[in-house]
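User: For my dataset I need records formatted as: sequence, then structure tokens, nothing else. Please produce one.
Assistant:
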Amino acid sequence: MSENVFLFVPNIIGYARIILNIISFWYMPTDYVLAIFCYLTSVLLDEFDGLAARVLNQSTKFGVMLDQLTDRAATMCLLVVLSHFYPKWMFLFQMLMTVDIVGHWLYVHSCNMIGMLSHKKIDASSNPVMHLYYTSRPFLSFMCIGNELCYSSLYVLNFTEGPSISFLFFSTGLWRLLFYICIPVAVVKSAISILHLIIASRNIAIVDVAERSKAREEQKHN
């Protein structure tokens, strides 16, 4: 009896994330409590689909693509809403979306072109930053969650500052404080997306050079 990849536990978690994101997107303009609850729940579930895949030996190419596309689409849609709430920063949000989507898409595609079994299998000698990003689960989780909390807190700030946080002579709302704390993480995460783009471009250029060289050799022998 053949396996039904679509019903693997990690992929079912992925479907749940999609449903939560759709609910979140629908309510983002009107009900920030429900919207942010669904969105952040989806973010947290992202930490469990990979764990389930490893524990249950249910890692699949479909699951990898499902996870990647869900992450990229969710962040993109949140940034679209932020562009509406903060129109003065629209260009920045557009650039963040572009770098995130293009960088990850090109990187995964380049890995397939050079025959890598997984985009997460990075040689430490080739790029230590990417190696740390994809081999240290705590670091990867910290970067992804911190990035999402940065955008999420900015979203909630459009509606409320949240409970007041006071320390000595410093006082601010919870969501504003969270936003300030997570800004450096979001900046580093965007820098890593740019790094994805650079590495992918180089890998594809290497493939181009090799294919062109092979074609010239074949022409010489014909």
